[in-house]
Every structure is written in structure tokens, then in C-alpha cells.
From TrEMBL:
Keyword Chaperone: no
Residues annotated as domain Pyridoxine 5'-phosphate oxidase dimerisation C-terminal: 171-212
Organism: Desulfocapsa sulfexigens (strain DSM 10523 / SB164P1)
NCBIfam families hit by this protein: pdxH (TIGR00558), PRK05679.1 (NF004231)
Main EC class the enzyme belongs to: oxidoreductase
Database matches in Gene3D superfamilies: Electron Transport, Fmn-binding Protein, Chain A
Pyridoxamine 5'-phosphate oxidase N-terminal domain sequence ranges: 39-157
The protein's name: Pyridoxamine 5'-phosphate oxidase
Length: 212
């Protein structure tokens, strides 16, 4: 199928060097809050890219749960494919796409596990059924049927029918510490605005304009 005729002009705004805040986290916070105040579903959804030992990239969508100057945090099964690949190569990429605002953010960085205390604090804030589901799914493994999965879920609901659901030892968070962050604003005629934050000598960040 030829879909080369699909075309959309980006006309919603621009991005100039003078618009940028001093750090990429501050700039991310500004853009994220603007995305959050729109009708964009799940503005915290991001594409996480990892690389296998033989060099094969893989991607999946995960949810950003919190961020600060220390990095960007998400949670997952620590025996999943993404977690295994992070263990072998902690260099990852996070990518946000907010097409309604004609914006993208790409974060290159290094992922490492958060503390058990941090994982437990977030785990206890999840809905109870989501906590139980974390115990049920051996993420990325092959299963014979959804029926078997739901049977296991019910078994776990019965097991944890009283009291708090404990944090699984195989579940937790990862913090991505950025080494560079790119902000992309769509512009007319494909002459987009792109700025890349990179660490500055002596501390802080420099933001450089990239050709579209």
C-alpha cells in the first residue's frame, strides 16, 4: 500500500533558544505540564528502547512514574526482557511523542535499579488488583492461554485475600539518568526546531540547535 500521500503541516508553534530553561529536566517539566493540561491520553507514556547482547534493539511503551533532577523512573518486572537487556547494557533511550502538540522528547541515558524502599513505596500506591497482577505475570515468558493466566490471577487473589499485598522480589523500578535530551517542535515545511541538551564542562547543561 502506498501511503506516501499522508502529510500534515506542523503549524502550532516554534521553539527558540531563548525559550529554553537552564536544564533539560526543567524544560521537560514545562512541556510535560502543558501536555498534561490537554486531552492527550497518558502523557506519561514513553517508548523505552533497549539493546540485546547481539545488538538487536527492542522497544515497548512504559509509563513514567516520577522524575526529578536525579532522573526518570519507571517500574517493571525485573525478569522481563527489558530488565535483562538493561542488566547487560544499561544504556537506554526514552521517547515521548505528543502529536497533538507537535512535540517529541528523546532522552538518552543510563538505567539502574532504584532502591527497594522506592519500589515498595510506589508498589503500595498501586490498585490492589495491579499489585496482585505483578505476582501473576512472568513477563515476556511464553504462556499457553489467557485462561491459565486468569486462573493464576484468581489463585493469587485468594492467597492475598487478607492484609497487604507484599512487594515481589522480582518487581521494581529503574531510574534513567540522562546524558542528553532532545526537544523537537514541529514546524512548517519540515523545517522543525530541534535542541539538544548536553552536559557542560564544569557542570550544568548546554543546549545546541540541530538541523531538522
Amino acid at each position: 500500500m502506498d501511503i506516501s500521500h499522508f502529510r500534515h503541516e506542523y503549524l502550532k508553534g516554534g521553539l527558540e533558544h531563548g525559550d529554553l530553561l537552564p536544564s533539560p529536566v526543567e524544560q521537560f517539566n514545562l512541556w510535560f505540564n502543558q501536555a498534561k493540561d490537554t486531552d492527550i491520553p497518558d502523557p506519561n507514556a514513553m517508548i523505552l528502547s533497549t539493546v540485546s547482547p547481539d545488538g538487536q534493539p527492542s522497544q515497548r511503551t512504559v509509563l513514567l512514574k516520577y522524575y526529578d533532577d536525579g532522573g526518570f523512573v519507571f517500574f517493571t518486572n525485573k525478569e522481563s526482557r527489558k530488565a535483562r537487556e538493561i542488566k547487560g547494557n544499561p544504556r537506554v533511550n526514552l521517547h515521548f511523542v505528543w502529536l497533538e502538540l507537535e512535540r517529541q522528547i528523546s532522552i538518552a541515558g543510563t538505567a539502574s535499579p532504584v532502591t527497594t524502599t522506592e519500589s515498595a513505596r510506589y508498589f503500595m500506591s498501586r490498585p490492589r488488583d495491579s499489585q496482585i497482577a505483578a505476582w501473576v505475570s512472568n513477563q515476556s515468558s511464553i504462556i499457553s492461554s489467557r485462561k491459565l493466566l486468569m486462573q493464576k490471577f484468581q489463585e493469587m487473589k485468594n492467597k492475598f485475600s487478607r492484609g497487604d499485598v507484599p512487594l515481589p522480589s522480582f518487581w521494581g523500578g529503574y531510574r534513567v539518568v540522562p546524558s542528553s535530551v532532545e526537544f523537537w517542535q514541529g514546524r512548517e515545511n519540515r523545517l522543525h526546531d530541534r535542541f539538544l541538551y548536553v552536559p557542560a564542562d564544569g557542570g550544568g547543561w548546554n543546549a545546541e540547535r540541530l538541523a531538522p
